[in-house]
From TrEMBL, chain A:
Family matches, as SMART domains: AAA
Protein name: ABC transporter ATP-binding protein
A GO term from the CC aspect: membrane protein complex
GO terms assigned for molecular function: ATP binding; ATP hydrolysis activity; transmembrane transporter activity
Domain ABC transporter, residue spans: 25-262
Assigned keywords, A-Z: ATP-binding, Nucleotide-binding, Transport
Gene3D superfamilies, sorted: P-loop containing nucleotide triphosphate hydrolases
TrEMBL record, chain B:
GO molecular function annotation: transmembrane transporter activity
Chief site of localization: membrane
Record keywords: Cell membrane, Membrane, Transmembrane, Transmembrane helix
InterPro entries: ABC3_permease_C, MacB_PCD, Macrolide_Exporter_MacB
Species per Swiss-Prot/TrEMBL record: Streptomyces klenkii
Topology with respect to the bilayer: Multi-pass membrane protein
Compartments, record wording: Cell membrane
Annotated protein name in UniProt: ABC transporter permease
Coiled coil: none
The family this protein is said to belong to: Belongs to the ABC-4 integral membrane protein family.
MacB-like periplasmic core domain segment(s): 17-233, 490-685
Domain ABC3 transporter permease C-terminal positions: 268-389, 719-835
This protein's GO CC annotations: plasma membrane
Length: 266, 843
């Protein structure tokens, strides 16, 4: 990527994570409870976590651990039962639906597992959709750079049905990046991709953190995907149980196996 | 497969609700019409049979063609002969006709066809069982009259007071001596009843001593057939004798004919409504099958055959149709009741009676509902059969391949071109015989446009989006893309609306144009202030014009008489008038000569007639009249064809000898300067307050004509309204289905920052675009059909000139806009209320 030179950072530098980067999002004592009485389920139990700017964080955990719920609550897609969640300096629990929608539009980018794009719009129109919604014009230079970063130039006039699964997800990444959000939440972005396209996509996410200073939080259950992150947060039974910096796929896998064993014996 | 179909039906209850509603409304219309016509028929028959209860044999003088063979009249001798027959209980001799009673304003108190006058026939007890007297007594002397209660009230006369009436001549007065009741349907349907003693009635309606019909009642236990035969035996052949049963059967046939014509008209509109419903049903099943393609593929994978898949879809449609039309049947009862009150409110006075639900109506309504639904689901079911089993295994959700529209567009273009060509051919037709051709052309044009609609949707929606783009922003853009996403669906939804609107527009244009034509007709050539005519077309005594002419305040009262003749085998009408005065009451432009050139032995002819018959000033016009006599006047003047004069104008001396009775068709009255306003009452007064005399201003004449057209137009609006309502249900249906299909998209849009309000706006705009597309097509097709079909009207109505009522068409478009907004209310609300997370996770 030719733009990497413009942002002189070395991949996965430990100093960056510990350095004076401000916090992009933070949860304090965040709890999420579903149902009442007998059917009461605690999805998140007093979780406190910070996501720093220009950092790529993976949230891992077995199914039912609350990792998706955590992401949804922090992204303002779900309400919380207690605690607080901040995006930048905005406290989400004080916002009504309208302001939350605006916050999502202006400050948050999303990449879902599938069905990220409107089939009726071209790739370019999909990428600029959040800007269109906001009634803003996309910064042409930035748009150009993002499109190049994810390798989509030449495919911009195509409709989603004319793109491969990997290309569709890259359009989703480009859409999330173009609006320059405070933070991007990615929910199993490689879940529907073959391993080569998945690796490619994770490379782009990695690149956008390094080259474009983007903050990304990714929920995944794939240790290989998690290994692209700067930091992995492990969740089990609605609690943060561990954290790992500079993860490798093997280390993450070992850690997960340990939880599994523990979960089965306890 | 039956179970699968039933399960599917139950699982998609809410999604099928709108479709069911469309079928329900259509079948309610059908069953309502059937129940209504059966009930009205039964009520009429009931009334008839009551009035025929005591009729064993009815005797009438027979056809007038037998008159010449020295026919005998129905007189007292005939009555006596019949009375002497064994088995005869009584003979009721009656004589009657039209008797017009004057109300307080000297207008007819009853309808033109229902102003009944007849004789009162007291029995041994001094009472006539057919007309029970409720107040006062029966008529017994020449100066006495009995009326029904309603008519008496209209005249404002109490017993002992004076009633004014006219039979066919001058006004008469009689003393009201009683009030009678009757179940004569003509009277209850807005007519009036006047009873006289027999001698008076004979003088008024026939000749003294003669009756117009005899009603023979039989003794209990007498055979009607036999008695009728005996009556025939004792009477001369010229008389006609019919048994009561025969009469009842004949009247019943007449009632059937009448109710069936109402029924067929309504059924035609119900058919249109159901046809509109077909689009909605087809749309729904197409959408359901697309949504269910994986399930169907799974069924195929586990061994279901194509035929079984088709059958499953059709069974589902059949069950839906059955359930919806059963509900429609119930609603139909309400429709039938409503129709009666609506028609009664507009003055139809239909008899009361219980609702009659024939098993045939029930079966027909249910059958129609089921058949329409199944037929509409047939094409989609074939699509379902084409789903390959392998699609069940597909992991990635691939959007269904869009089938090319090339074939469809070609067919559509061919149909439209054919339809338009036929309609253009219709514009060249000279006579009004091309009605069938025009209807075929109109049907083809509409069918072609419906087939072409997917192709047309693109430019129309684009245009609309561009026009509103600045106002609607991103919601508008998304709505446009959604509307264009599935052109077939958008087209089918819009077509449903188009059908109703094109008919409404076409009828409106023709009606407004006709109205304008009628207005022109009166305005152009009549300069008289009043036109005096007789309400029963019996003509006016020549004295009337003379009396009026002497009246102060009247500048001219010009009588016009006419008689038919043939010249070279071509029939025409010659009018006789006062040549010196005709110019005062009408505008006649003479091309050569002038009105005063019309003298004994000369005539004036219209330029058109002169051209057609090769006449010039000085040529002879050979005339043969229908009394066998001939004349050969010279042409002395030629006038430009106008609306007041017929083809030939002559003096009274030419026309009068050929008239049975010298009567004026009309008298045109011109007021002296400054006295036009109060003249109307004065003319009526001069005419003795005769209720038969109609005094109308040109304005009133126009309104009488135009009023009819407007009334019919509003009735059509009402009947076509149902088709529009069903089309609106279709728009709601399409939007609701689309919102359901696009749940994940909407969730994603909400996640990346589309506000609820904007989601609502998006759905609403899509709705408006579909509705406007349908409206634009409908208005366009309607205007085209009205323009081309209008040429047929023109051939028999030269004043007809096409006028496009733009204001009214703008109202139609506004209504379509409102329809779009209204139809979107519920789907838009649903879309905006979707939970973001659940939507994203939805399958």
């Amino acid at each position: 990527m030719s733009h990497a030179a413009a942002f002189p950072t070395s991949p996965g530098a430990p100093a960056r994570a510990r350095g004076g980067f401000p916090v992009a999002a933070r949860a304090t004592g965040l709890s999420k409870v579903y149902g009442q009485g007998d059917t009461r389920v605690t999805a998140l139990d007093s979780v406190s976590v910070e996501f720093r700017r220009a950092e790529f964080t993976a949230i891992m955990g077995p199914s039912g651990s609350g990792k998706s719920t955590l992401m949804h609550c922090m992204a303002g897609l779900d309400t919380i039962s207690s605690g607080s969640t901040l995006i930048g300096d905005t406290e989400l629990s004080t916002l009504n639906d309208k302001s939350l929608t605006r916050l999502r539009r202006d400050k948050i980018g999303f990449i879902f597992q599938a069905f990220n794009l409107l089939p009726t719009l071209t790739a370019l129109e999909n990428i600029t959709l959040p800007m269109d919604i906001a009634g803003r014009k996309a910064d042409a230079e930035w748009l150009d750079m993002v499109v190049n970063t994810v390798g989509l130039s030449g495919r911009l006039a195509h409709r989603p049905s004319q793109l491969s699964g990997g290309q569709q997800q890259r359009v989703a990444v480009a859409r999330a990046l173009t609006a320059k959000p405070e933070i991007i939440f990615a929910d199993e972005p490689t879940g529907n991709l073959d391993s080569r396209s998945g690796a490619e996509l994770l490379g782009f996410l990695r690149e956008s953190v390094q080259a474009l200073q983007q903050t990304i939080v990714m929920v995944t259950h794939d240790p290989v995907a998690a290994s692209y992150a700067d930091r992995v947060v492990f969740l089990a039974d609605g609690r943060i149980v561990d954290e790992m910096r500079e993860p490798t796929a093997d280390a993450v896998l070992d850690r997960m196996k340990a939880f599994d064993a523990k979960g089965r014996t306890s | 497969m039956f179970r699968t179909a039933l399960r599917n039906l139950l699982a998609h209850k809410t999604r099928l609700m709108m479709t069911a509603l469309a079928v329900l409304l259509g079948t309610a219309f059908v069953s309502g019409t059937l129940i209504f016509s059966d009930s009205v028929g039964a009520a009429f028959r009931n009334k008839m049979s009551k009035s025929l209860d005591d009729v064993a044999v009815s005797v009438t003088p027979g056809a007038p063609s037998t008159e010449k063979e020295g026919a005998r009249a129905l007189d007292d001798r005939v009555v006596a002969t019949l009375r002497a027959l064994p088995g005869v209980a009584s003979v009721r001799p009656s004589v009657g006709g039209v008797a017009v009673i004057a109300d307080k304003q000297n207008n007819p108190a009853g309808s033109e066809w229902g102003s009944t006058g007849t004789n009162y026939v007291p029995g041994k007890d001094g009472k006539d069982s057919r007309y029970p007297i409720v107040k006062g007594r029966g008529p017994a002397a020449e100066g006495e009259i009995v009326l029904d209660e309603k008519t008496a009230a209209k005249t404002g006369t109490k017993i002992g007071g004076t009633v004014r009436l006219a039979i066919d001549g001058p006004v008469m007065t009689k003393k009201l001596v009683g009030i009678a009741e009757t179940d004569d349907p003509r009277v209850s349907a807005g007519g009036s009843l006047a009873l006289f003693d027999t001698a008076t009635a004979q003088k008024l309606f026939g000749k003294p001593g003669e009756f117009s019909d005899l009603v023979v009642s039989a003794k209990p236990g007498t055979d009607q057939q036999k008695l009728t035969a005996e009556v025939r035996n004792v009477l001369p052949k010229t008389f006609e004798a019919q048994s009561g049963k025969q009469l009842a059967a004949e009247q019943s046939k007449m009632i059937d004919k009448e109710t069936s014509s109402i029924r067929n008209t309504f059924l035609a509109f119900a058919g249109i409504a159901l046809f509109v419903g077909v689009f909605i049903i087809a749309n729904t099943f197409t959408m359901l099958i697309a949504q269910r393609s994986r399930e169907i593929a799974l069924l195929r994978a586990v061994g279901a055959s194509r035929r079984q898949v088709v059958r499953s879809v059709l069974i589902e449609a059949g069950l839906l149709g059955l359930a919806a039309s059963a509900a429609g049947l119930v609603l139909g009862l309400g429709v039938a009741t409503g129709l009666r009150s609506v028609l009664n409110a507009t003055g139809a006075s239909l008899p009361d009676g219980p609702l009659v639900i024939e098993p045939a109506s029930v079966l027909l309504a249910l059958g129609v509902g089921v058949v329409v639904t199944v037929v509409a689901a047939w094409l989609p079911s074939r699509k379902a059969a084409k789903i390959a089993p392998v699609e069940a295994l597909a992991t990635v959700e691939a959007p269904p391949a869009v089938k090319s529209l090339v074939v469809r567009n070609t067919i559509g273009a061919v149909l439209t071109a054919l339809g338009v060509a036929i309609m253009l051919y219709v514009t060249t037709l000279k006579d009004s015989g091309g009605l069938e051709t025009a209807m075929a052309g109109a049907a083809l044009t509409m069918a072609g446009v419906i087939v072409l609609a997917p192709l047309l949707s693109r430019p129309v929606v684009h245009l609309f989006a561009r026009a509103t783009g600045r106002l609607t922003g991103v919601s508008g853009k998304l709505a446009k893309e959604n509307a264009l996403r599935n052109p077939r669906r958008t087209a089918a939804t819009a077509s449903a609306l188009m059908i109703g609107l094109s008919l409404i527009t076409g009828l409106t244009v023709v009606a407004v144009s006709s109205n304008q034509g009628v207005e022109k007709m009166g305005q152009q050539d009549l300069t008289a202030d009043y036109k005096v005519t007789s309400a029963n077309f019996s003509g006016l005594s020549p004295d009337i014009a003379k009396t009026l002419a002497k009246e102060p305040g009247i500048a001219a009262a010009v009588p016009i008489r006419s008689v038919g003749f043939q010249s070279d085998g071509a029939p025409a009408l010659v009018q006789a008038t006062d040549p010196s005065a005709i110019g005062k009451v009408s505008y006649g432009r003479f091309v050569s000569g002038s009105a005063t050139d019309i003298r004994n032995g000369t005539v004036a002819v219209s330029d058109e007639y002169a051209r057609d018959h090769g006449l010039k000033i000085g040529s002879t016009l050979p005339m043969s009249f229908y009394d066998g006599k001939k004349a050969a006047p010279k042409v002395a003047a030629i006038y430009a064809k106008n609306d007041v004069y017929s083809s030939v104008l002559a003096t009274f001396s030419l026309v009068d000898p050929h008239l049975d009775k010298v009567r004026d068709d009309e008298v045109l009255v011109k007021a002296a300067p400054g006295s036009a306003a109060e003249l109307k009452d004065k003319i009526k007064e001069t005419l003795g307050g005769n209720p038969l005399m109609k005094v109308q201003t040109p304005e009133e004449l126009r309104r009488a004509e135009a009023g009819n057209i407007e009334d019919i137009l509003y009735l059509m609006y009402g009947l076509l309204g149902m088709a529009v309502v069903i089309a609106v249900v279709g728009v709601v249906n399409t939007l609701a289905m689309s919102v359901f299909e696009r749940t994940r998209e909407i969730g994603m849009l909400r996640a990346i920052g589309l506000a609820r309000r904007e989601v609502k706006q998006m759905v609403r705009l899509e709705s408006v675009m579909i509705a406007m597309f349908g409206a634009v097509l409908g208005v366009g097709v309607g205007i085209f059909l009205a323009w081309s079909g209008g040429h047929l009207v023109r051939s028999s109505f030269p004043q007809y000139e096409m006028v496009v009522p733009w204001a009214r068409i703008a109202v139609f478009l506004l209504i379509a806009l409102a329809v779009g907004v209204l139809a979107a209310l519920w789907p838009a609300r649903r879309a905006s209320k979707l939970n973001v997370l659940e939507s994203i996770g939805a399958q």
